[in-house]
Structure formats: structure tokens, C-alpha cells
Amino acid sequence: MAGGTRVSSAAPAAGSAEVIDGRAVAAAVRERVRRKVTALRAERGIEPGLATVLVGDDPGSEIYVRRKREACAEAGIRSFHHPLPAPTPAIELAALLDALNDDRAVHGILLQLPLPAGLDAAAMTRRIDPAKDVDGLHPLNAGLLAQGAVDAVVPCTPAGVMELLGAAGAELAGAPAVVIGRSTLVGRPLASLLLGADATVTHCHSRTRDLAAVCRDAEVVVAAAGVPRLVTADMVSPGATVIDVGTNRTDAGLTGDVDFDGVRRVARAITPVPGGVGPMTIAMLLDNTVRLARRASNGE
Ligand code: NAP
User: Fold this and answer.
1) Domains of the chain, with CATH numbers?
2) Quick check: 19 and 264 in contact, CB under 8 A?
């Protein structure tokens, strides 16, 4: 965890939560990764390598992958980019993933999702060697995480949320914590991580009867529903820590799942959108890559 320091430096006014600075926490993680890369190279002669696979020409996905590769370069991680046209037959994508599984210079394989129509994302994710599953989406890693195993590869966004909670100094052991959303990418792994940190977890979704009442009982609320301003001030108990994973493009611009202006008057600490969870995802991808490289060199 990044330590309990990276909330905005000014003391919050009464009735105004501390804003958890995701950019600062992410920068600290990236610096930590840089140091690990230097040590791996010096002590074991290993250069961590990440393969990125992008099928098709979706502009958003192209930007995401480019940012990830730039972050790798900055951290001293080699990246090997494999753009494929759409349509690409499943057999060709599978053959590429098999080759990357066998490539000793590649420690992590990132298959950018979503895949174009006609390709089965779940099947392709399962094709990736779990030891190189840098996004932590292979069912083996998801299962290990659900079992509380320490050697699971943890998906990047939930791992980033845990770093932010650490940076905010949130007390998790025994604390009532609510996760809103149950996707395999965010909500489910996050609930497992919070449980692993001894929080008392309540997991909510679109069928939850009284979301407001459940949230009001929580000391930690993590919103990952993809619904703009789902969490409002009347749903948050005074002193709660609120993490907003939501990234919603609306006419008013980028919006989270939390009504930031209202909730910050009640909460103890809160993440903004943008500048909260978003910057953490790439930072944790770098962290996972280095972790997998170190494990490979240990013969694990
Ligand atoms: P998802 O797969 O669409 O899952 C959304 C979850 O929210 C589902 O479990 C759904 O319940 C639940 N939900 C929807 N409406 C709800 C409501 N009114 N009340 C309670 N629960 C509700 O989305 P995701 O991939 O987990 O992503 C969630 C959000 O996080 C999105 O805005 C996404 O853009 C953002 N995100 C951000 C990052 C980042 O790096 N910052 C990374 C990943 C995702 P059901 O299961 O019942 O349908």
C-alpha cells in the first residue's frame, strides 16, 4: 500500500472530505515499479516485458494501449506490440497468444478488450498462460483470488482501489464495506480483496433492494456500477471513505458514479473523477508485469 499520506495536502474544511489524489498515488506506485525494474535488471539480469495485443482499430482502445506502452517505457519495462486487423480469425489470434505464452522475453500478456464481434473474449482470455495473465482475468487467477490465495494475479483496477484505500488511511479490518457492482473486471475481485483485508463486505448490484440503506451502514463505499451520480450524499454516513470507479461519458463530460460535490460534504475521504481510480489502473498494470517477471525468474 502507498501509505496514509496521499490525500490533498490542505486540511479539509468542516464538512468537506479529503480528496484522495489518484495521480499522486499512481506516481508513487510507478516510482516503486521503476526501482523494482532496476533491481531486477541489476541483480538477476532480467528485463520485464509486456506484450500488448490489439485487434481492430477502435480509437479508444488504441489510446489505452498507447498509454500503457508509454508507461512501460517510462518504467523501464519492454513492450512488444501486436496490432491485428479486424476481422482476424480466432485461430490466428489463438496462435499469437500461444506464441507469446512460449516467448521467454514476455512476462505479461495484455489482450485489449473488448474484442471485435466474432471473437470470444472469454475463450481468448483462457488461452493466456495464467502465469502471464497480467490483467488477472484468467479463471485460474479469479479462482485463486476468490479463495484468498496470496499468489493470485489481481486485476489492475481493483488492485488500484486497494492502494487508494491504503493511501487514504482507511481502516478496513472489521469495517462495514459496500461494493456496488459485481463484474468480473471490478466488483467481484474487489469484494474478494476487501474480504481478504478483513472488511465486512456487502456486495450490491442492480437487484439490490435498498441500496441507500445498505450504503448508509458502511464505513467504506466503492461504486463500480457505471451509473452517473448513483451515490448521493443522503446515502453516505458521516466519516465514510468513498471510492468512485465509475467512468461515464455524459453530455456534461466525464462523470463518476458518485455525486462528488454532495458526497464530499459528508464523507471523510473521496476520490474525484477524473484523477482518482483512473490513473491507478495503468500503474497497477506495471506493478503486475514486474511481479510476473520476478516470479518467472524464481521458477514459480
Ligand atoms: P459492468 O460490467 O457494466 O458492471 C456494472 C455492475 O453494476 C453490474 O454488476 C450491475 O449489476 C451493477 N449496477 C448497474 N446499475 C446499478 C444500480 N442502479 N444499482 C446497483 N448496481 C448497479 O461495469 P464494470 O466493467 O464493472 O465497470 C463499472 C464502472 O467502472 C464503469 O463506469 C466503467 O467505465 C468503470 N471502470 C473504470 C475503470 C478505471 O480504470 N477507472 C476500469 C474499469 C471500469 P447487475 O450485475 O445486476 O447487472
Assistant:
1) 46-131 (3.40.50.10860), 155-278 (3.40.50.720)
2) yes
